[in-house]
Design goal:
Radius of gyration: 23 Å
CATH architecture: Sandwich
Strand content: over 45%
CATH class: Mainly Beta
Largest sheet: 8 strands, antiparallel
Shape: elongated
Number of strands: 13
């Protein structure tokens, strides 16, 4: 009897080890992202920077398996009626430490970053007119043929928002409200620094 118990315990331990190996070493899992805490439509930077429009969001990317995922590239698309625009230039990081997206390893624990999606450098621009916008976030994994759709949401730009966004350095933020379960839109206008103050700041850094 004791021999059978020992055999069963050994088989159980072997099964647990095999399952652990599957979850940690072999299971590929999926790349997932959380609800973005904030989404931005508006110009890329302000003073001495590009005024072409971009899409910005902050989110956590994570893998559903212990193995992790390697992102080769990311992009977003915006659909409004019959109009569709790709924002294919991917920049990520934290404030003051942004880099051009050229690969990102995403672990089981996840990585939280700011993601900026800019227009391709072909001279085109995109104006945010009033209407409903379908935002889709895509990521292409290494060795995958097609990008996967990580997230989709419809956001409304009102006529008032569209008029305000015609001002220089004006952008539209959508901040997630967990209590209401929806985004709260608001216009923000970036104030340009005084030129003399800007030059003094540069001079102080050099000294």
């Amino acid at each position: 009897m004791e021999a059978w118990i020992s055999i069963l315990l050994s088989l159980f331990a072997l099964s647990v080890s095999a399952m652990t190996a599957w979850l940690t070493l072999f299971k590929h899992g999926k790349l997932l992202m959380t609800q973005p805490t904030t989404i931005f439509f508006g110009p890329d930077g302000g003073f001495f920077e590009s005024t072409k429009n971009k899409v910005y969001l902050r989110t956590l990317l994570y893998s559903s398996s212990r193995k992790g995922q390697v992102i080769e590239s990311m992009h977003v698309t915006l659909d409004r009626g019959e109009t569709k625009q790709n924002f294919s230039i991917w920049v990520h990081g934290q404030k003051g430490d942004l880099v051009r997206g050229s690969g990102l390893f995403v672990t089981y624990e996840g990585v939280t970053l700011n993601h900026h999606f800019l227009l391709p450098p072909d001279g085109s621009d995109f104006k945010f007119l009033a209407g409903d916008y379908k935002l889709k976030v895509f990521a292409k994994l290494v060795n995958s043929l097609e990008p996967i759709n990580l997230y989709s949401i419809t956001l409304a730009v009102t006529q008032s928002h569209a008029e305000n966004m015609k001002q220089k350095n004006a952008g539209l933020f959508f901040d997630w409200g967990p209590d209401q379960g929806s985004y709260y839109p608001h216009i923000d206008i970036k104030t340009e620094p005084d030129l003399d103050q800007f030059m003094n700041m540069i001079a102080n850094k050099k000294t």
